[in-house]
Design a protein that fits this description.
Elements: E1 3-4, E2 7-11, H1 17-32, H2 38-48, H3 51-59, E3 63-70, E4 73-82, E5 94-102, H4 111-125, E6 130-136, H5 140-148, E7 152-161, E8 164-174
Parallel strand pairs: 5-6
Antiparallel strand pairs: 1-2, 2-3, 3-4, 4-5, 6-8, 7-8
Helix pairs in contact: 1-3
Length: 176
């Protein structure tokens, strides 16, 4: 586990699914709610942040979730995928960072960096040689963060938000 002053990074347990549902919905809306229609946002949240979907994802042995927690408040989270849990077919020894989200009031406080460091720690523990992710082409803040941390663009794929087809830039980081 990674700690930084009063922030703890801890694994998400099955008993945390309700908190994950709420945090996932809130952070996604904060990040993208103003640049998407309310209808598309609600469709996406309903299909991706419900109890059934998140319970299955937390139970999947090839996916891992971590919370960033300050005192008793959960302020951000990370989801990484190995093997067949990855959202794209990738070579062996790769790992996907599917989600790093932080509550807006904690932007710029180093929480995303702590979650990113946790992802790299998981990658190293699993002898991963390449970490990859998809980031919306209209999210310059995240693109800058990943480039600053050594990621380079290598492809693109579609991301469906409600009935809106968006483009994600695929980025990768070679670890070994």
């Amino acid at each position: 586990m990674i700690t930084n002053s009063d922030v703890l990074i801890r694994p998400v347990e099955l008993s945390d699914v309700e908190t994950l549902m709420e945090l996932g919905s809130v952070t996604f809306k904060e990040a993208f709610g103003t640049v998407n229609t309310p209808e598309n946002m609600q469709k996406y949240l309903n299909s991706n942040f419900n109890q059934k979907v998140l319970t299955a994802e937390v139970k999947n042995p090839e996916s891992m979730f971590f919370f960033a927690q300050q005192s008793e408040q959960v302020i951000g989270y990370l989801k990484v995928n190995l093997g067949n849990a990855q959202t794209e077919s990738m070579p062996d020894n790769t790992m996907e960072i599917e989600r790093i989200y932080v509550l807006a009031k904690y932007y710029g406080k180093g929480i995303a960096k702590l979650l990113f460091e946790q992802a790299i720690s998981v990658a190293n523990q699993n002898n991963i040689t390449t970490v990859w992710l998809g980031v919306w082409e209209e999210n310059p803040r995240a693109i800058k963060f990943y480039k600053k941390n050594g990621f380079v663009e290598f492809d693109k794929h579609n991301f469906i938000l409600g009935d809106d087809v968006q483009t994600d830039i695929l980025m990768k980081l070679a670890l070994k």
